[in-house]
Specification:
FAD/NAD(P)-binding domain; nine-stranded mixed β-sheet; 20 strands; globular; binds flavin-adenine dinucleotide
Amino acid sequence: MPAREVDYEAIVVGAGLVGLAAAVALARAGLRVALVDRSKIEVGTLSSTEDDWDARVYAISPGSACFLRTLGVWQRVPSERIAAIETMEVFGDAGGEITFSAYELGERALAWIVENHELNAALVETMRTTPGIDCLAPDSPSAVAWSADRVELRMADDRSIAGRILVAADGVNSWVRAQAGITISPRSYGQTAIVANFATERAHRGRAFQWFLDDESVLAWLPLPGRRISIVWSAPETLATELRAMTQEALALRVAGAGKGALGRLTCITSATGFPLTFLRLPGVIGPRLALVGDAAHGVHPLAGQGVNLGFGDAAALASALAARTLVGDAGSAFLLERYALHRAAPVLAMQAVTDGLVRLFGTSFPLVKLARNGGMRVVDALGPLKRLLAQPALR
Ligand SMILES: Cc1cc2nc3c(=O)[nH]c(=O)nc-3n(C[C@H](O)[C@H](O)[C@H](O)COP(=O)(O)OP(=O)(O)OC[C@H]3O[C@@H](n4cnc5c(N)ncnc54)[C@H](O)[C@@H]3O)c2cc1C
């Protein structure tokens, strides 16, 4: 029996970076899409001037950049706002060191650093010019009802919209996930990531740095265009509170010191902002007429800069699975959803195991473990093929 008419084939709740990408990818696969967000969907208030640099940046993997290019998003990010990571130097807390080089891996860049403001603007503009997407924002869904052939979303004003599949892209504390009866909550790492941008005395020449420090914090310096860097300092709460309370001058001295003056004197060019860090692992990312994507589906520590990359991978895989809907006549069929879940299971599990494993490994001060982890870094650094193997998931 043919399914009764619905308003949309896919309803995407959440228009963060992943929800926007999912909506565009699904529409390009031919689906009629509704994109719902409780906030206004806008390109943002920052201006892209030499003095205005968003401290919220992402390391976008070559694989994600390629996906965004196929959507027509990457081309909209001004090239002068993108910086390539050509080498990444990682330091342990007792002499361990690994260097990854794009050149050695046969890539143009290990990742591309892009500001949130720029990426969001490019996604919003692409979404607005992609046929087949209705944007319902700001609007908050108040209830969901699943039935055999559809899913209905009641909005705050009591209006309802119906679709074949609901895509939860509403972040780590997903409302849709809770409505579907998935009650697992994110686990706090007891850490806050402090982000800020700095002007540097010396040129970074495409180098990124990461230090696993003695105090169980992880400090990353990421290259921005020109003599600028963006930092992500994942710090236990006491240190995070201390860093946020500092004047810009004191913070610049502290960050330069923690990075052993690798780029000379630093000057703070934004204020410092904090993001609480959580881990989320779910037993599954699908349900009847439901697919979870992005942080709604998984939470990872930002030390490998992979959260949004995993989310873009979800969006790509979901669009590719649902593109085959004409074969089964229903975009919400269990067959298609299972294909999506199967496709994402291994990459997500691998990334969660690596990032969470690293946090645990460097979160213990037991001397033997410290010796082993730093020795391990030196061994991996010396073994080219193993290093290449480790780098592959992050590149794709
Ligand atoms: C400090 C830090 C650095 C990071 N660096 C990197 C990096 O370098 N590379 C990388 O790949 N990842 C990085 N990440 C991870 C990345 O930020 C996240 O994975 C990504 O932003 C998640 O995007 P999302 O669209 O899934 O969720 P979100 O950005 O949380 O978006 C959720 C959207 O849903 C909407 N919403 C929520 N609830 C509702 C509701 N009930 N109804 C309607 N709408 C709703 C919200 O308004 C929002 O627009 C970093 C994270 C942190 C904290």
